[in-house]
Amino acid sequence: MKIAIIGAGFTGLSAAYKLLQEGHNVTIFERDSAPGGLALGYKEKEWDWTLEYFYHHWFTNDAAVINLAHEIGAPVLIKRPNTSSYINGTMQQLDSPLTLLTFNKLPLLDRLRMGISLALLRYNPFWKPLESVTAASYLSMTMGERAYKMIWEPLLIGKFRSFVPKISLAWFWARVTKRTTSLAYPEGGFLAFAEKLADTIKQKGGTIVYNTTVDSITEKAGKVTVGKEGVFDRVIVTLPSGVFAKMAPQLPSQYVKKLQNLESLGALVAIVRMKKDFLPDNIYWLNVCDSKAPLLAIVEHTHFMGKSHYNNETIVYLGNYLAKDHPYFSLSEKALMKEFDPYLQKIHPGYEKNVIDVKTYAVPFAQPIIPVHYSEQIPPLPTPINHVYLANMQQVYPWDRGTNYAVELGEKVAGLVSAS
Ligand SMILES: Cc1cc2nc3c(=O)[nH]c(=O)nc-3n(C[C@H](O)[C@H](O)[C@H](O)COP(=O)(O)OP(=O)(O)OC[C@H]3O[C@@H](n4cnc5c(N)ncnc54)[C@H](O)[C@@H]3O)c2cc1C
Prior knowledge:
alpha/beta, binds flavin-adenine dinucleotide
């Protein structure tokens, strides 16, 4: 079959890889000039490795993507970095049962309750019954208000903003179940990995057309026309549901409404290149447990992957999830850093002397909102348009979005298309 895939993120790339193995003729159309989608990276001229615009790592049990990396000969590195939390003005490691037990900001009883509350979720194999309960109600009830308000409420607010009261416990279950203390990373960065996958696709006879924005999809007599790009037997769209709704005029209004009802937040990061370390104690990931803070996480990438790959620079991400119309999205780099500065000074006074450069990056669609009973809202992979399939990160539930699930989804949709 002649198949078009819209988007060269990991869903599109892995679908292409699988379809080519099954002997199909595959063309990917990508708006950007390189593969990787939300995990896209870049390289400063002084660096040996590429770096993601948005912080990325894998959990060591992200089997689909790690197996794919092994299959195409892309080396994967595994490390055990330090994840800490910034709570009431101090930083404390909090990433394992042992560090929870010694966490002295909560009375022992609260720590034990929190440990039991998280363990009950982690070792529960059944997520479905959890989707009728909100994460906020379960966490505050089982671990108590004090622990919930100190740690989990600020993190939920940072991740979901005003949507917190409707976030499902099934989403939280997925986060807790999948988390591993050791983390994995593709050698050379996610862009290097995506390029290796793209090269493999080309070697297998696939075509990737970059710098091409598809603006319409229409079906007639069993054939699908993709913008001005050509006519295909099957089309896989990996774009956000709302974008797909706008580009396919044949979609029934009921279905369009369903897609438009799926909510999401955007992401904004500042990448700060520095001459010296920003976080102490080799901390890689610092959760900011303060719902009034202007940022959710400080991620010192070079405390995970060595500085030697980046000209001995320190690389720090300052990350945030925000509603698409948040005023931060229209601030200049300088103005955004001015917002962050009072907070950063608390963590590392005088840090600004070490700053080499700051760049900010934003995407409007970064984090799907997962409310209770989300399974009833997910659009199926086949769409109402004949031979057109939708596969994006709003459909990987109960898992949270991630490149691992993009690969799983790509393989799944490829299987459906191939069998159709
Ligand atoms: C801040 C942040 C942190 C994250 N951290 C992690 C992490 O640590 N680990 C992890 O595994 N995942 C992480 N993720 C999630 C991960 O990046 C995504 O789940 C995954 O990349 C989604 O892949 P996708 O192919 O489904 O979609 P996308 O990556 O969004 O790919 C869609 C592609 O379609 C292209 N496109 C859009 N419109 C058009 C058009 N009209 N025509 C042609 N092409 C078009 C886009 O340019 C893009 O390349 C993170 C995401 C964000 C935002």
